[in-house]
Amino acid sequence: MGCGEAAAAGGGFFLLLRGIVLLLGVCKALCLEIKVSPKVRAFVGEQVTLKCSFKSSSPITESLTIDWTYRPFTSGQMETIFHYQSVPYPTTVGKFKERISWVGNVARGDASIAIQSPVMSDNGTFICSVRNPPDAYHNIPQTMLVVVERGFSFQLTSATLLSILVFLPSVIVVVLLLVRMGRKIGVLKEKKKSGCKKSSIEVSDEPECTERDNCLGKLRNWCLNCVDTDEEDPY
Fold first, then answer.
1. Does the predicted model carry a pTM greater than 0.70?
2. Residues near 107 by Cβ (< 8 Å), separated by ≥ 6?
3. Which of 32, 53, 102, 205 has the fewest CB atoms within 10 Å of its CB?
4. Which CA distances in Å does 24 have to 107, 119, 166, 225?
């Protein structure tokens, strides 16, 4: 390679590098960054929010515009479902008529919208586009919406499951202890009620009991002990 060719190659590389630097400088000065959730899951009939945030290198003015477009997963054309310029303009036609609401705040860099009563046919790709002149360049992020039926079964979180495993046995043990205490209190009351009375004739500290009373008292106490015992009688 001759000196002329080397110089030309070097000059071309210098021009390319200079162009990249200039492009980066322009983009840094006039670019607008947009962020959305890549995938959003919604349930049939329950409002869902499509979040979109932006960061502009220029002050927010009345020239700022926001557009949300929708494209179904199946074959279909892209349609604009929301437009904002100073005030929100939800679509007045199509499947999203009267179902789109503005929940954003441009002063805070929020361009989010909400969909009322979503259905499974709403599944598709949503694109949030923000323009704030003189910002000229911006990325085009997309949100994939998936609408499903909410099942009757619920999923237990690990914390909920742990709580059930720990507290449920404790509650059962406490209930059993209370039942056992109640039985013992009942036995004591029965023993007091079955105590023999003193004879009105004899002035003695020993109770006067008939043979029949003794037999019934012993039988009652034996039955109560059988019910209250933790182990079965071997006989």
1. no
2. 60
3. 205
4. 26, 43, 59, 92
